[in-house]
Automatic annotation (TrEMBL):
Lineage summary: Bacteria, Pseudomonadati, Pseudomonadota, Alphaproteobacteria, Hyphomicrobiales
GO molecular function, one term: kinase activity
Transmembrane segments: 6-29
Protein source organism: Rhodoplanes serenus
Keywords assigned: Kinase, Membrane, Transferase, Transmembrane, Transmembrane helix
Name of the protein described by the UniProt record: Histidine kinase
Length: 50
């Protein structure tokens, strides 16, 4: 039984570290919005005949 508790403690610690890392990324990383333009070839607008 102690090995089960130790395993669960390690899994909880790893999950906590992952959660803390994701939280840190959301708090400290500033995204800069920018314009994106994509050229679409004209043949994409033409529907194939049925």
């Amino acid at each position: 039984m102690p090995s089960l508790f130790r395993f669960l403690a390690v899994v909880a610690l790893i999950a906590g570290l992952v959660y803390a890392g994701m939280l840190a990324l959301t708090l400290f990383v500033e995204l800069k919005p920018r314009e994106i333009s994509v050229s679409v070839p004209p043949d994409r607008f033409v529907k194939p005949p049925r």
